[in-house]
From TrEMBL:
Family label: Belongs to the small GTPase superfamily. Rab family.
Native source species: Muraenolepis orangiensis
Region (Disordered): 199-235
Keywords: Cell membrane, Cytoplasm, Cytoplasmic vesicle, Developmental protein, Endosome, GTP-binding, Hydrolase, Lipoprotein, Magnesium, Membrane, Metal-binding, Methylation, Nucleotide-binding, Phosphoprotein, Prenylation, Protein transport, Transport
Record membrane topology: Lipid-anchor
Name of this protein: Ras-related protein Rab-23
Length: 235
């Protein structure tokens, strides 16, 4: 167990070329909806969803970054403090597949090696695929990443992606805590990107610079989480 009665918040960045389905994935996961309209993300959006992983309460904070290079300067700033990453490409867009390594580098430069997953979205459009299965699997192997084929439209494998990342993150966190229990200390200003105003928040940083935001229990909030989408909010 992590510290009892603490809730861990994990900042997850979702990155990849424009129109691969990043916003749709986050909307699907946090709100349970899918829209056919394409609305280009300007800069960064953010939604959250609480989940329970191995009996731990975890709050996933999902950062939706713009895929267009014109927004690179803005989005890079938001990678800082990220604790997990989803790299997305589309079944019908070869360029988005070819760009994956460079997206990974952009994130790594800012935050180092964090739990990361590779997602091929839009597999409902497999008839129109421009990427062979072996190619996608080869990429995952080269990058040493868990690989999911998903369809946000059909709600295939979306939950699994985020569950995997949360598990992987908690696993690393426990390893670090077990190896170096004395280095968990409180910081006050590192996580400026989290705009929560709760007085029950404490920020912690572990030895490798990964950030842990622990939210002390807020009875009102934890009691009304029966609907997993109920407490999603767009900031
Ligand atoms: N067929 C199909 N279409 C999808 C799927 N996921 C997303 N789309 C569509 O793809 C288009 C782009 O989706 P977005 O979620 O806006 O893409 P994005 O990656 O956030 O794009 P940027 O904001 O430009 O970075 C929209 O028209 C979505 O409806 C899917 O699984 N299958």
């Amino acid at each position: 167990m992590l510290e009892e009665d603490m809730e861990v918040a994990i900042k997850v960045v979702v990155v990849g070329n424009g129109a691969v389905g990043k916003s749709s994935m986050i909307q699907r996961y946090c709100k349970g909806v899918f829209t056919k309209d394409y609305k280009k993300t300007i800069g960064v959006d953010f939604l959250e969803r609480p989940i329970v992983v191995n009996d731990e309460e975890v709050r996933l904070m999902l950062w939706d970054t713009a895929g267009q290079e014109e927004f690179d300067a803005i989005t890079k700033a938001y990678y800082r403090g990220a604790q997990a990453c989803v790299l997305v490409f589309s079944t019908t867009d070869r360029e988005s597949y070819q760009a994956i390594s460079s997206w990974r580098e952009k994130v790594e430069v800012e935050v180092g090696d964090i739990p990361t997953v590779l997602v091929q979205n839009k597999i409902d459009l497999l008839d129109e695929t421009v990427i062979k299965n072996e190619e996608a699997e080869g990429l995952a192997k080269r990058l040493k990443l868990r690989f999911y084929r998903a369809s946000v439209k059909e709600d295939l494998n979306v939950t699994e992606v985020f569950k995997y990342l949360a598990e992987k993150y908690l696993q690393r966190l426990k390893q670090q805590t077990a190896e170096e229990p004395e280095v968990v200390h409180t910081t006050s200003n590192k996580m400026g990107v989290f705009t929560t105003t709760s007085t029950n928040v404490s920020h912690q940083s572990s030895s490798n610079g990964h950030e842990v935001i622990s939210l002390r229990p807020n009875k009102q909030r934890t009691k009304k989480t029966k609907n997993p989408f109920g407490s999603c909010s767009l900031l």
